[in-house]
Structure prediction request, 359 residues.
Amino acid sequence: MLTNSSPILVTGGAGFIGSHFVLDWFTHVGTPLVNLDKLTYAGNLRNLESIANRPDYTFVRGDICDRELIDRLLVEHQPRAIVHLAAESHVDRSLVGPQDFLTTNVQGTFTLLEATRHWLATLPEAERAEFRFLHVSTDEVYGSLKPGDAPFEEAFAFRPNSPYAASKAASDLLVRAWVKSYGFPAIVTNCSNNYGPLQFPEKLLPLILDRAVKGQPLPIYGDGMQVRDWLYVTDHASALRAALELGKIGETYNIGGWNEQANLDTVRLLCELLDEFLPDSPHKPHAQLMTFVTDRLGHDRRYAINATKAERELGWRPKETFATGLRKTVRWYLDNRAWVEEVTSGAYREWMETNYGNR
Ligand code: NAD
Ligand code: DAU
Prediction:
């Protein structure tokens, strides 16, 4: 019987945004949660140590492409919602090896949709009406903006430019088709760049912080004038909670920070904060480590989100400014060197050589 106290099923809850979502859930909602995660290189159960022993938390290691597993989890846990975050998420990796992106982001989403649709058909109408599927996606599906262009709105056409973006766009379109064809109860969010604690150091901010602390060159792709709209990760978690509670079936909500920054400025700000927090560092001023390297293939020039609809219909607004969020982020990475060291061993070194070796 699905009720408000039935569990929610989260996919990818051991990743960066997923673990913030899980932690946020237990702080603000506190009903049972099942976390399904394959634990790829990007999944890390350390992120969830503080809630791991709760009786209302269940972790399942598994793949969203595994139909039998999904069928079993749905019957066993009778979730009132699925929050689908599991994905291959790094653009540079998608350029080197797109296959995993197609498999997890497209086939995996398809598997979840089909398993859920068939399970929902077995429920009485009243219970089925309570269920929601929240599909967590990205602003990259809209492609790249020119300097004077208006920020992305929900009705904008999809123009993905990387294998990652194309795989996410494909998954969004599958969700749309399931809503239209089968009345599937899905809500979609498309969010801008997240930053904050627990982000794997392949992404710009944690990578720059890790390398700057070690006095290593800070790789700036191309001219560094690409613009990203940065949102502190806990603000994304609260937006997802709001979308699950108040979002309308079949609707898309763009989530962003109203915070466009050129990469060069973002890296400079990080360097200034490191200069302040590490006054005795031999690498001061850290900005001297900035190094221009060969650009990313098909590099999107600018992303910017118009989040008006989410603000109006979900009553959501970001709490952190870039100034407060960056300070918290830099402090966290300096205070959690052991976390960084643990995730940057082994396979991480191979990735650094693959992506940066010949740049
Ligand atoms: P991440 O790479 O940090 O985490 C992804 C998680 O998914 C990991 O825990 C990984 O183990 C798990 N996973 C991967 N393949 C799986 C599979 N086949 N089955 C089960 N689990 C699997 O990603 P993130 O940055 O936390 O992003 C989460 C979601 O949010 C993604 O869907 C991403 O497209 C979207 N998103 C990310 C950002 C961002 O700035 N990071 C912005 C907007 C949207
Ligand atoms: O916009 C949302 C997207 O943001 C999410 O969907 C993706 O999952 C997430 O990875 C992120 O994509 P980006 O490609 O924008 O993020 P990344 O941190 O990889 O890069 C941010 C910018 O910094 C981008 O313009 C590329 C640049 N960059 C990145 C790296 C890793 C560099 O200049 N040097 C680097 O070494």
Notes: The mean pLDDT is 97. The radius of gyration is 20 Å.
